[in-house]
Design goal:
Length: 539
């Protein structure tokens, strides 16, 4: 590799420079230091030796320069090839995020062998249950194969590891769960447990790792609706944790598997039991944990919503007006707790007979929920004897008849839940960020088109925790001058769907709810970053 410096060698500078004497007229002072000792002894022999050496150096240098140019061309070619592949893949748009898969960061481990025309890469999606992963794989193969120099394409599909969108200290059992989805009705007898179980097995059929938590201690339904071989929960004596039972690849926990049947206890005790069952269970890595919520909007429901970082909720109702009244209470509860409701399932809508469709319980409750609360998706479930029978037999309907009408409805619901959870995670992860070029905190609250900037020092001074404000007197403990004007956050992480945790240089971790950030004084004239000045080579 030292030959790469040959152009600066004295041999080439002697022979290539017009100002230097020719080889036959070399004088001792013009000779190389290593050969100068022989210049005065055998000048003629030396002249030939230097010429031969110079000739070899020239040839070596020329070949080295050629190799160097070839290597540089190869490097440029590889860079161009990589650019071509990424440009081709950027034609594929993720319909949920509205951004191409390259900008989404899905393309990983790109390897190119242009000599053989081989391209391989991995598409890492947000969830293994992505409903359009086959389309992504097909399109990726097609657009890359269209490049003229590509002869073979190898696409590998994968998913991001399970991780919650929560900055706080979660219980160990919940630290590897990506999405927690609540199935709620706030009214008993509308088929909430049927929806929860069938949705869980639909997500599992889509390729996700799934668990079910039956949160109804007074009347657990899960032991009737599934038939696991081991019908008792087992305690890990060393870790003092609960090992969930499993049926057809789905992990599950219910008070009905605790060997005590239904509970007869007061509300505070029930909340403690639910907390223990949920947070001390060894769930492992899950893409989705489906929680079958108990009826009502009392202590138990509030405990679940506040202890567990719920990603989203699915509302179950029936066509009757009475069901709508109770469901409306539940939707308002989730709204207040910043848990987005992503779909409404209207159960027992209709049945078909004699070529006609009948609506025995009336119509409009589900659509009324959608219209009044702006929930984007509505799914209808018919009255089917098989759906009811499957719930009693211990075999979910989507497993017993995976090609049936009911299974098709749950497939659509599963696709909706996957897409909405991915969108929520994306919105939450980018809701509050720090822009170093502006030296400002950028805020774009989920489910809002509004975007604004806040001064970091203003955010820090508006902390309302006990460290900044006296809880008893309301006196401001954190003074204006305590916060330097040039303070910058070290880290900003989401806390569920309602707030972010901001870590400051002094080690203080500030919890900033979105509602509070929207009330803080905003930056009106955000300074634009100074564009880089072009270097002489660029002009």
């Amino acid at each position: 590799m030292q030959l790469l410096h040959a152009p600066s060698s004295p041999y080439l500078s002697l022979l290539s420079s017009k100002s230097q004497p020719k080889a036959g007229r070399l004088s001792p002072e013009n000779c190389l230091p290593l050969l100068a000792i022989n210049c005065s002894v055998q000048p003629r022999r030396l002249k030939r030796s230097i010429w031969v050496l110079d000739k070899r150096s020239i040839l070596s240098s020329v070949s080295t320069k050629a190799a160097s140019v070839e290597a540089g061309t190869s490097a440029i070619s590889i860079g161009t090839a990589e650019s071509d592949v990424l440009k081709a893949l950027s034609q594929i748009i993720d319909p949920d995020f509205g951004t191409d898969i390259v900008s989404c960061g899905f393309v990983k481990d790109l390897r190119i062998n242009e000599a053989l025309g081989e391209v391989s890469f991995r598409l890492e999606l947000t969830t293994p249950a992505c409903p359009i992963k086959d389309m992504f794989e097909q399109k990726a193969n097609e657009v890359v194969a269209m490049l003229p120099w590509v002869k073979s394409v190898n696409v590998t599909m994968s998913a991001q590891p399970a991780r919650p969108i929560f900055a706080g200290q979660l219980p160990v059992g919940l630290q590897k769960i990506s999405n927690i989805v609540a199935i709620s009705s706030c009214k008993g007898g509308v088929g909430k447990s049927t929806v929860a179980v069938n949705l869980a097995y639909t997500l599992a059929g889509m390729g996700a790792r799934v668990g079910i938590f039956d949160a109804d201690v007074y009347g657990p339904s899960l032991p009737t609706m599934v038939s696991p071989e081991n019908r008792l929960l087992v305690m890990n004596p060393e870790k003092k944790t609960i090992i969930p039972t499993e049926y057809l690849g789905v992990k599950m926990v219910s008070f009905g598997f605790a060997g005590q049947g239904r509970a007869i206890m007061r509300g505070p005790m029930v909340s403690g039991v639910i907390d223990q069952l949920l947070t001390t269970t060894e769930w492992g890595e899950l893409d989705y944990l489906v929680i079958d919520m108990p009826p009502g909007t009392g202590d138990i429901q509030l405990t679940l919503c506040q202890v567990v970082p719920l990603t989203a909720a699915v509302i179950v109702t029936t066509p009757q007006k009475l069901a709508f009244i109770d469901v409306a209470k539940g939707v308002r509860m989730f709204s207040k707790l910043k848990v987005p409701c992503v779909a409404v399932v209207e159960n027992m809508c209709h049945f078909d007979a004699d070529g006609k469709r009948y609506y025995p319980f009336g119509r409009g409750s589900g659509s009324q929920v959608v219209q009044q609360f702006g929930i984007p998706h509505l799914f209808d479930l018919p009255i089917r004897p098989t759906l009811s029978a499957s719930g009693d037999s211990g075999m979910p309907e989507v497993v017993a008849d995976p090609q049936g009408e009911v299974a098709n409805t749950f497939q659509n619901l599963g696709v909706c839940v996957v897409q909405q959870c991915a969108k929520i995670r994306q919105q939450v992860s980018t809701a509050v960020t720090y822009d170093k070029s502006f030296k400002a905190i950028r805020v774009k609250v989920p489910d809002s088109d509004e975007e604004f900037y806040l001064h970091p020092a203003t955010v820090r001074r508006n902390d309302r925790s006990a460290q900044s404000v006296d809880e008893w007197t309301g006196e401001q403990k954190l003074q204006y001058t305590d916060v330097p004007e040039d303070i910058e956050p070290e880290e900003i992480r989401p806390m569920g769907n309602y707030a972010v945790s901001i870590t400051w240089p002094d080690g203080f971790s500030q919890i900033a709810p979105y509602d509070q950030l929207q009330m803080i004084e905003r930056l009106v004239d955000v300074p634009q970053p100074t564009p880089p000045q072009p270097t002489p080579a660029q002009t």
